[in-house]
Specification:
alpha/beta; 60s Ribosomal Protein L30, Chain: A; Alpha/beta knot; 2 domains; 11 strands; 37% helix
Length: 246
């Protein structure tokens, strides 16, 4: 079943990825804009059919989202598996660096976390198959197209996945507000899977129990928690800082 991707930056990132694209739709009168010229060039290089349509048609396909006058019709997303993610890390001769998202339900949080994950060089992201946001067009746009450069897996049982990763000597660290250890005190170098929990409840009990270590961010103000995307991004960049230093 085809999917739709909209927004100039996401469309451009998809065209620069390996995602299979069926057609590019441009709003009538859009071809003169500089970014659109780059999009057209990328589509032509890949021999992708280009069609001029009314803005009303794009509004309809994007369900009224901000499409910026361009939309791609792409093949349904193919999720990766854990073996592919670990093979990718091995191919790069790097210790595995993974992100596990435990039931993130807000598409904007998911998109932001995936954008940060791609920026810090995560080898793969693992999502639960049920009760969580999926990687849809809104997530692609929020991530600025980072989704198209990431290996993303969907798994039915995160606890089982964590145990499998631990057998591969991957250290599993969860971000939890009640943890005793501060995030910068933990050793986040080497083979690592960082777990970020749900916006409201955080990491689920079962997933928490399977983590090797829990860490937290210091909170000195009146607010006792951070947005999941913000907290996860801070922890990811601390891991990157330590790994680069090591």
């Amino acid at each position: 079943m085809p999917e739709y991707i909209w927004g100039r930056n996401p469309v451009l990132e998809v065209l620069h990825s390996t995602r299979s694209v069926k057609r590019l739709l441009l709003a009538e009168g859009q071809r003169g804009a500089p970014v659109v010229s780059t999009i057209l060039e990328a589509a032509q290089q890949r021999h992708i059919p280009i069609e001029s349509v009314s803005r009303a048609r794009l509004d309809q396909l994007s369900h009224g989202a901000v499409h910026q006058g361009c939309l791609l019709i792409v093949e349904e997303r193919k999720y990766a598996d854990i073996e592919q993610i670990l093979a990718f890390a091995a191919h790069k001769h790097e210790a595995p660096f993974l992100l596990i998202l435990d039931t993130i339900q807000d598409v904007n949080n998911l998109g932001s976390l995936l954008r940060t994950a791609e920026a810090v060089g995560i080898h793969g992201v693992i999502l639960p198959e049920h009760r969580a946001a999926e990687v849809n067009a809104t997530v692609v746009k929020t991530s600025a197209g980072a989704t198209e450069h990431l290996l993303i897996a969907q798994e039915t049982n995160l606890s089982r996945v964590i145990e499998a990763l631990k057998k591969q000597n991957i250290w599993v660290v969860g971000l939890a507000g009640e943890a005793k250890m501060l995030y910068h005190q933990a050793d986040l170098t080497g083979s690592l899977a960082l777990v970020v929990g749900n916006e409201g409840k955080g990491i689920s009990r079962l997933v928490r129990e399977h983590c090797d270590l829990l860490i937290r961010l210091p909170m000195h103000g009146h607010i006792n928690s951070l947005n999941a995307a913000v907290a996860g991004s801070i922890a990811l960049y601390e891991a990157l800082r330590q790994r680069e230093k090591a």
